[in-house]
Amino acid sequence: MELFIDISELAIRKHGESLCGDQSKTARTKDKTLIVLSDGLGSGVKASILATLTTEIIIRMLKADVGLTDVVETVIGTLPVCKKRKIAYSTFAIMEILHPDCTYKIVNFDSPAAMVFREGQLMHPVRDTIRIQDREIFVSEGKLENGDFVCFLSDGILHAGLGTKMNFGWGWDNVAQHIEKRLHEPPQCAWEVAHNVLAETYSLYGGKPGDDASIVGILARHQNRLTILTGPPLSRESEGAIIRRFLKSEGRKVVCGGTTGNIVARHLNTEVEVEIKTMTAEVPPLGRLPGIDLLTEGIITMSKTLQWLQDCDFDPETLPSQKDAAVLLAREILTADVIHFIVGQSINEFYQNPEFSKYVSIRKNLIRELAFLLDQQGREVTVEYC
Amino acid sequence: MEAKVHVQICVGTACHIMGAADLITIEDLVAEPLREYIEVKGVSCLELCRDETRGKPPFVIIDGETMCEATLDKVLHRIERQAEKLIDEKKRHAGS
Question: Would the CA dihedral through A350, A353, A357, A363 be positive or negative?
């Protein structure tokens, strides 16, 4: 199975500054995944502008399939240099991962070396040094395997605690050891590790970061696939084949809809068991069917789920803790990397009734909006109508 | 097994919007001595709203008989009456 590249970009600003002088950017195309982290010289607005320009230029050139060496040459040649300190106005680190085999190249320019972990242990990949326009560039290559964790840090993380809790700052080796300890328990997502490191950084700074500090965590893991079946198919003749295909689909399976649930139940020679205690004033209850990971009502629940996803800004950590159908559906969606909607187009005529609440949108519009937003969030979404 | 009044509340979309959510508290509102004679369950969409001749949602089935435009008062009244009938029958059988 092709690996999924789970990326988490987190940063904290220098205390007292309104903008972060570090910038990260990622991009995914059919053939590759690109990650760039840049640290602008100093902090604040000027540093932020420099770092933003650097990441934008690099990502655009790489997306346009310009070779990595050419990109690095161009950017280094373009970057202004501080006359006093003789250092570039921004640094950068780049990772280019090719699909489907997940071979990668990492380039570091004036930035902390990337850390690569396998089975929870720090690896020591060979780093070649090349010179471009009299500047030293470090390049390493490899191939990601399931469970590998890679991270890029800005030096604000390495200097954490300097002058207070740490004589020389946290330091690269100590950060690597800290991450190894965290990886004793295999993470479910990149965010878990990245957040852990950044939280420790913040703590070492005593809550007042002395510099902008950023981390980009990359976790290679299996894809989380989700198929959502909602709405009865238009044609009863094709129903059987659609349900059979749905039940055989890889990953988690969700059914949204009372009639849809009944159809699936019929094919399974059983009946939906309703968990009435999960019903609230706003959200109908959950149901249960063997082999189905989540069974909810249709449009009321999906409307509410869409609202939750927007309110929580697509961050599962900020979803409420209650276990009603809408929140559980939101959680399923946010856990998935690849989501396929099978949307039956048969409409219940009662829904045209003006007595129906205004907020209830017809199924197709709901799915369209949901698919659009999830796609914007970087998930792979497909929709099939039947 | 003790005879009971079986109450099934449709929890489909139309019924939920038209008031089914209000009906889940029905068990708590039944008079105390009658509660053990009543069983309330949710049932997946009965699809009755598609047929205009069946009336309007929310739909509740009480011992196989469908009630349309169900309200707490209407359902409570019906199920308490039926529970009382069951108690009377039980007493008659115990007496004979």
Answer: positive
